[in-house]
Amino acid sequence: MDAGRLASSLRGGDRQALAKAISVVENDWAGAAALLKAVGPPGRAFILGVTGPPGTGKSTLVGRLVRAYRKRGMRVGVIAVDPTSPVTGGALLGDRIRMQAYAGDDGVFIRSMASRGWSGGLSRATSGALQLMDAAGFDIVILETVGIGQADIEVVAVAHAVLVVLMPGLGDDVQASKAGLMEVGDVYVVNKSDLEGADGMVVSLLGMLSGSKGRSAPVVKVSALKGDGIEKLEAAVDAVRVRFDRSPELRLHSVRGMILETARGDAMQRLERLSAPKADKLAKLVLEGKLAVSEAARMLAK
Ligand SMILES: Nc1nc2c(ncn2[C@@H]2O[C@H](COP(=O)(O)OP(=O)(O)OP(=O)(O)O)[C@@H](O)[C@H]2O)c(=O)[nH]1
Ligand SMILES: [Mg+2]
Question: Which of 20, 74, 91, 126 is most enclosed, with most CB atoms within 10 A?
Answer without folding.
Answer: 126
